[in-house]
Structure formats: structure tokens, C-alpha cells
Input
Amino acid sequence: MVNQVVALVPAAGRGLRMGGSIPKQFLSLGGEPLIVQSLRALQAAAVVDQIILAVPSADIEYCKSEIVSRHRFTKVTKVVAGGAERQDSVRHALAEVPSNTEIVLVHDAVRPFLTQQMIDEVVASARKHGAAIVALPMRDTVKQVGQDGMIERTVDRAPLWLAQTPQAFRRSWIETAHQKAYAEGVRATDDAFLLEWLGHSVAVVEGSGENIKVTRPEDLVIGEAILASRMKECETGGTSERRGTCEK
Output
């Protein structure tokens, strides 16, 4: 049987910018751990066949019992130890992807507001082009600033996009990219960069301003507002693209 799409969720970060001692992926959002919101959307996605979760080694058993089992995330087939950095966690999870997988989708655990539309569109684009990411067009005016704190020039924002996740790739492409990057010591803040580094073209699917990455305390406040808005929408009938939020 072919595993059409396997989703990898790197969730081994310690979230130092959030302050406190609890990793940000386990902080409460809407009364539940932040990571639950992300996994719920992936669980609800018809196109996703399996989910592999990479977490701190000390939290593996907690995640198996309190996250995966408690919330009945039946698509989570493996919980593995992540690495020191996000790229290491993705590489560790990649090692567990079945060889008959077609598309590997990578999504940050701390982006809890992905939609079904994003998942469907980025997977479809990856099937067509080999690699695709969700991204948002730059809407603010962009300034290039020197080390002296003075503006050097205004940058044309038209071709600039802010990368988000989910990102999706042909399995052989992303496996090769991570293997070569590890061997050559190349580091990247997202997986698309590694595909670009190897010379592959990466397609872009437009994302959403709601698809925030929770990295600072104020992001949780914004996240609570987004979640409240979505839950209100669920109460009035919801939409198909947000069914992951509505299903519990």
C-alpha cells in the first residue's frame, strides 16, 4: 500500500523566546496544548495518511499518552526523539518515513492555524512541481538598514514573500536534501531552502495572515483571538477548510 502523504511535525524546540520553563509547543491555547491544535488539523485532512511527531526525548512518553492517545490522533504512527535544532528534528523524523511514501509534508507544531485548504493546495502543488510551500506576500514597506541603524534603501516588496508551513516535497527530493546538508554541514531555517540549495524549483501557495508562528508571549494573545473567532464560526456551521478546528 502506498502512503501518499506522510506529515512530519517537528516539535522538539525549547521555545526560549517565550520565557518560562515549558516548551512553547506545550503551552495552553484554548485550554489545550498548542501542539494539539496543529495535530487536529492534520488529523482531519483527508489527504494526510500518516503523521510522525518529533519531540524532546524526555517528552516522548508524555506525548504518546497525553497528546496522541488522549486526543485520539490515530494518524500519528510514530513519536520520535527530535534534535538540537529544527533541521535535526526533521531529519530524525524523515528516517522513519516509509519508503513507499510519495509526498512528505512538514509543518511546524507551533503554527496551529493551518487550514484544510492550505494542506490540500500545497500537497497538490508538490505533486505537480516536486516541492511547494505556503507563503504570504509581503505587504509592509521593507527597509534595508545598516549596522549604524540608518536606512540604506527601501526594498521593492513586490517579489518578497514570507515563508510559512506546511511545506510539501517529493520524498526522494527532501531525503536527498537533508542527507547532503547533514554531510556538508549546511544549516537552514526551513526545508525549502535545502531544496533550493540543490537546484530544485519550489512553488508557492498563498497562505494566510492567521497562520502565525507562536514564538513570543504576545503571539498567544493573538492566537486566543483567532481561535475564539474560529470557534464562533464553528458554532454557526463552520467551513470545510476549518473543520480541523471544529472537530474535537
User: Anything to note?
Assistant: The helical segments are 34-44, 60-69, 86-94, 116-129, 171-184, 191-197, 217-235, 243-246.
